[in-house]
Design a protein that fits this description.
CATH architecture of the largest domain: Sandwich
CATH topology of the largest domain: Immunoglobulin-like
Low-confidence stretches: none
Order of helices and strands: EHEEEEHEEEEEEEEEEEEEEEEE
Strand content: over 45%
Helix content: under 10%
Number of strands: 22
Radius of gyration: 33 Å
Largest sheet: 5 strands, antiparallel
Structural class: mainly beta
Mean pLDDT: 89
CATH class of the largest domain: Mainly Beta
Length: about 230
């Protein structure tokens, strides 16, 4: 029985009346088992939605001697939000990225000779996506012609322009006058109270993502003139 061994005790052991005899008679290899190294999860975590992400669990056997540990095959266990993922035992985890993946934390363990490593640190996917729709808060109270009726000189707002983008969209409030010209009111997501005149026909929030993706949400105005 061998007790209190360390990794440094591993190696080839032989004995005899001389060194030549020890080599001739043969010996034994003492293998000292230890947990695999704490894994690190590697991979590109900034991914466009509807593409595939690949996370790799990188670990090594620390059992000794070295020539033995190189022959050890590791198995892997993957976790999402600290829950074991069924059927995921490969070194690399692959999945299609959605918007919901921003809430997931991934980690892994490596196992060799029934010895489990410590759990890796968690990583999160950063799903990249542009805007689908804009929501105005509060919702404008439109009439049956889908316009907002207001008397000239009255105020409108404040309105908040909400849109889900990652990275965040640039939001700009603009207005269109009766000649069709468009002017910028605010480069923030909140439109402060505005006093209206008869020349303003449309208020709109524009959301821009990247170089090409632009959507907007407009409020068509019916400004009642004073007499």
């Amino acid at each position: 029985m061998i007790r209190n061994t360390t990794l440094e005790d591993s190696g080839y052991y032989a004995g005899g009346v001389s060194s030549e005899a020890a080599w001739m008679e043969g010996g034994v290899v003492l293998i000292v088992l230890d947990k695999p190294s704490k894994p690190k999860v590697n991979g590109d975590t900034d991914k466009m939605i509807d593409t595939y992400a690949a996370l790799t669990c990188s670990s090594n056997s620390t059992s000794a001697p070295d020539y033995y540990s190189k022959l050890v095959t590791l198995s892997y266990t993957w976790f999402v939000n600290d829950t074991k993922m069924d059927g995921e035992t490969d070194e690399t985890l692959r999945f299609q990225v959605t918007r919901a993946h921003k809430y997931n934390r991934y980690s892994c363990e490596a196992t060799a000779m029934e010895l489990e490593s410590y759990r890796s640190d968690t990583v999160q996917i950063n799903p990249l996506y542009g805007p689908l729709k804009i929501i105005l808060t509060p919702q404008p109270k439109l009439n049956r012609f889908y316009t907002l009726t207001i008397r000239e000189g009255q105020t409108i707002g404040p309105y908040q322009c909400k849109v889900d983008c990652n990275p965040p969209c640039n939001k700009t409030w603009k207005y269109k006058d009766s000649s069709g010209s468009i002017s910028v009111i605010s480069k923030e997501g909140i439109l402060e109270q505005q006093r209206l005149n008869r020349n303003i026909s449309v208020l709109l929030c524009e959301a821009k993502w990247g170089n090409d993706t632009v959507i907007d949400k407009s409020i068509t105005l019916d400004v009642q003139c004073k007499f």
